[in-house]
Design goal:
Layout (H helix, E strand, L loop, with lengths): L18 H4 L33 E3 L2 E7 L13 H20 L10 E3 L8 E11 L4 E9 L5 E9 L11 H13 L4 E3 L15
Parallel strand pairs: 6-7
Antiparallel strand pairs: 1-2, 2-4, 3-6, 4-5, 5-6
Length: 205
């Protein structure tokens, strides 16, 4: 931990294996009571069986402490691939909030599974923002074994700002963003698709 940074008291407390890394990091909060994401399956702290993903500001990136519960097991001792994608989706979303201060929506998700993701073992989610244009933000993320640093899964992102409640983007704008996403295969695309608009999720192993 840097000598010029005092420890931060995190509420709720983090599991012990993560404390040395996260002790001085500020949590990115956008799921407080009354927020649109308080009951989100991925990041909402009040979802009964949700992932409850939390993200913290680090040097040029965000970090996320993750332990996949056994109830999300797919193959023996491994997390279900869809759950792994959901964890990466939330870490990327946290990076978008950390970089812009605003939440974003998912339009397309592409994940590379390098090796099985263990359950009940400390993992480190890591994500950072890249190129930013007027309409979208590119990001990338990894999910690593906390102890060994081994990389088991990778994802990238292209995200667009979520509109305020009740605001609906023009269909042409949404289609344009999705077409750009498909031209950039291998990227996760978070698009501002309002109610009644197409929401595509594409997972490529």
């Amino acid at each position: 931990m840097p000598l010029d940074k005092a420890p931060v008291r995190h509420e709720p407390a983090l599991p012990a294996p993560f404390e040395p890394i996260f002790a001085s990091l500020e949590e990115i909060r956008y799921t407080e009571p009354g927020s649109r994401f308080h009951q989100c399956f991925g990041c909402g702290p009040n979802h009964d069986i949700g992932l409850r993903v939390r993200t913290f500001r680090a040097a040029g990136e965000v970090l996320s402490p993750i332990i996949v519960p056994r109830r999300f097991e797919g193959p023996p001792e491994g997390a279900h691939g869809g759950i792994v994608a959901a964890y990466l989706d939330e870490v990327l979303a946290g990076a978008a909030v950390g970089h812009t201060g605003r939440p974003h929506w998912t339009g397309e998700l592409s994940v590379r599974y390098v090796k099985p993701t263990p359950v009940e073992r400390p993992l480190l989610g890591r994500a950072r923002a890249g190129k930013q244009s007027e309409k979208y933000l590119d990001l990338e993320a990894t999910l690593e074994d906390l102890d060994t640093g081994a990389n088991a899964r990778r994802a990238g992102a292209r995200q667009a700002e979520a509109r305020k409640r009740g605001a609906r983007p023009a269909l042409g704008d949404a289609r344009e963003l999705l077409e750009a996403a498909y031209l950039a295969r291998g990227l996760l695309v978070l698009a501002p698709l309002g109610p009644g608009h197409l929401r595509d999720i594409d997972i490529a192993a």
